[in-house]
Amino acid sequence: MGNNHKEMVKDFKRRFLVSLVFMVPILILSPMIQSFINIEITFYGSNYLLFFLSTIIFFYGGWPFLKGLYNELSDKTPGMMTLIALAISVAYVYSSAVVFGLEGRFFFWELATLIVIMLLGHWIEMRSVMSASRALEELAKLMPDTAHLIEDDEIVDVKIKELEVGDQILVRPGEKLPADGEIVEGTSYINESMLTGESEPVEKNIGDEVIGGSINGDSSIEVEIKNAGEDSYLSQVINLVSEAQKAKSKTQGLADRAALYLTIIAISVGLITLFSWLGAGRDLAFSIERMATVMVITCPHALGLAIPLVVAVSTTISAQNGLLIRNRTAFENSRKISTIVFDKTGTLTEGEFGVSDIQSFKENYSKEDIIKYAASLESNSEHPIARGIEKEAEEKEIDYYDIKDFSNIKGKGVKGKINGEKYLVVSPGYLEENNMEIPKGFKQKSGPFTITFVLEENEIIGAITLSDKIRESSRETVAKLQKKGIKVWMLTGDNEQTAKYVSDELSLDGYLAEVLPHEKQEKIKEFKGEKEFVAMTGDGVNDAPALANADVGIAIGSGTDVAAETADIILVESDPADVLTLIEFGKATYNKIVQNLFWATGYNAIAIPLAAGVLAGYGIMISPAFGAVLMSLSTVIVAINAKLLKINKN
Question: Can you tell me the distance from the alpha carbon of 435 to that of 470, in angstroms, rounded to the nearest whole number?
């Protein structure tokens, strides 16, 4: 879809440039333009040349609109394309009839300028908005291309599509699992956070199930395949996303609705004008000219630029403020959000272990000493807790000790020698197993925290508390959203204890824990069924179906490509506070679009009756020149108004 979108942008640009070239001689040869600039260029066959050039621009430049007319009428959703196609068709057919003998005047210059401006508007809009969703392609990329199949004690690399249920495969450290299965040999920590939302890599032993697309930790494992191909967990997620995208409401844009009303007005007033003048005794040529004038003027040039110009300005300003807009309609509709649902891991929280507390139980060991000993030992470990301790040491710019005789204590920690003394970093389970009492000064924090103890020989010298930290901006963001009357929920694949702790800390309106992707999607549907206008904010594969199903899908920029491709808006800075910016800016953009549509269509209230000749009895009838001035004026006002758009950051 991405390449198709790029080709469409190129096609509109090409048609715009070609039409622009043909428009110049059409303007020069048009009698009305010649009267504007007080010149006269006539030669034998000039009208036929004008007809020939206009035919090219009508069929080549106008093709997207003629095709759009067919598509809109086929879908029974007439809109902008219908109005444009109607106007250029009336202008072309009527003007061609004048060339070949019908009394009247040409509308060729209006035809040319209308096509050029509408092509420009569509090109601007398509360039400003990011390409269509490539979520399914990104989901497929999560799976590796090949797997290490075990055949008669030999390892054979095969394509994953060749895998069958019952096959046994080898998964090396750091590799992605190519299919769902069960471990038959080995133990490892598996990172499933992108798929399930579980914040911590999960220890998996023989007999445990593993999910295709998740990432193996620091040990090799052998896996027997249980689900492959369409039956795999990831394939089911892909199907959920696909179904949600197909079912997602195709909200008809404001411009299309305005165009629909103008189309009805154009046809109705045009026919009324024709039959009224015929009924008044005027000849067919005059009556048709009045009808054509009404129908051409009804399609204002400004309408084609009213929204694209605002979109271009808002897309630029929003990108400067950390918002990437992928779906314009969803962006405009963000003002209607009544319930916002956050994923936890990587969204409300940072998505990785961080040190939240350091305690020292010996006067001759400072907190920095505790971290230094622990980080020095953990630098040799692949455990996720080790990464959190190392990160803390890096932030404090602490140098590591040299380690001798390093080894893992299976499932309980690590040990090694520093300056000839034995040091350990261990879990509470190690202390219990060795009948060691936790020091009386230890302060136990309530909540989903992971505790590690630092030992010198058999003496506990310190403790380090780690957790998936709540983002600093999350509290303020939730409070401000609730102040605006927006309900804030959390859906997470993480465990109940962790979810409850985060929910209580942030005073959320509600939460659901240990939910799978399809359950997140079902909850979004439930909210929508309660007439809530729902936004979903997430960062992982497990959020993709919910993001696709929500009225507004918002991806955290630091998340997976899948989440970004499924979402309508991306928060570049991965800051939940940008959701507030999104809502306020969505309101400002919507208001600016409404203002532009008013200016783009408002002049019709004057132009259409005058063009139809309602005041002809008083000698007042709009000339094509005056109609052109009104059209130009509304276009200028629309352009200036779009430039005045500003972001309102609370």
Answer: 34
Residue 248 has pLDDT above 50, yes or no: no
Spatial separation of the C-alpha atoms in residues 92 and 15, rounded to whole Å: 18
AA identity, residue 81: M
Measuring CA to CA, how many Å separate 546 from each of 236, 240, 527? 13, 9, 12
Give the whole-angstrom CA distance, residue 256 versus residue 264.
Answer: 12
The region, left, alpha or beta by phi > 0 then psi within -120 to 50, assigned to residue 220 is beta
Could you tell me the pLDDT band of residue 524, with boundaries at 50, 70 and 90? Answer: very high
Please, what is the average pLDDT of the chain? 80
Tokens found for residue 143: 């799976």
CA–CA distance, 51 with 57 (Å, rounded to integer): 10
Percent of the chain scored above 90 by pLDDT? 20
Token reading at 347: 């969204």
The one-letter amino acid code at 374 reads A
Active site residues: 343
At 344, is the pLDDT very low, low, confident or very high (cuts 50, 70, 90)?
A: confident
Do 502 and 344 contact (CB within 8 A), yes or no?
yes
Calculate the CA 143 to chain-centre distance. Answer: 23
User: Residue type at 139?
Assistant: L
- What's the DSSP call for residue 540? S
Write down the number of H helices and E strands in the chain: 24, 22
Nearest residue to 159 via CA among 139, 140, 178:
178
Q: Which residues pair with 340 in a beta bridge?
A: 488, 535
Cα–Cα distance measured from residue 481 to residue 486, given in angstroms and rounded to the nearest whole number: 5
- 351: CB partners within 8 A, 6+ apart: 193, 199, 345, 468, 539, 558
Task: Write down the H helix ranges in 321-441.
Answer: 328-333, 367-378, 384-395, 428-433
Residue 587 is which amino acid?
K
pTM of the model: 0.60
Query: Spelled out in words, what is the top-level CATH class assigned to the domain 144-177+180-227?
Result: mainly beta
Determine the Cα–Cα distance for residues 185 and 204; give it in Å rounded to an integer: 10
Record the tokens describing residue 73, joined without a space. 């009428």
Q: Radius of gyration of the chain from Cα atoms? A: 33
Residue 197 has which token pair? 């939302």
Percent of the chain with pLDDT over 70: 82
Contact status, residue 458 vs residue 435, Cβ threshold 8 Å? no
Q: In this model, does residue 52 exceed pLDDT 90? A: yes
Say how far apart CA 487 and CA 277 lie, in whole Å: 59
Which residue is associated with the tokens 């300056």?
A: 419
List the one residue out of 494, 133, 517, 533 whose CA is nearest residue 347: 494
From 223-237, 328-342, 447-461, 556-570, the region with the lowest mean pLDDT: 556-570
Q: Where are the domains of the chain?
A: 2-128+248-315+587-643, 144-177+180-227, 316-349+471-586, 351-470
Give residue 353's pLDDT band: very low, low, confident or very high (50, 70, 90).
confident
For the domain made up of 316-349+471-586, the CATH class stated in words is alpha beta
In angstroms, the CA 296 to CA 86 distance is 8
Nearest to 282 by CA among 610, 617, 609: 617
CATH code for the part of the protein at 351-470:
3.40.1110.10
For residue 372, which of 354, 360, 384, 356 has the smallest C-alpha distance?
360
Contact 183/223 with Cβ under 8 angstroms? yes
Phi, psi of 608 (to 5 degrees): -65, -50
**How many residues comprise the chain?**
650
Over 90: is that where the pLDDT of 489 sits? yes
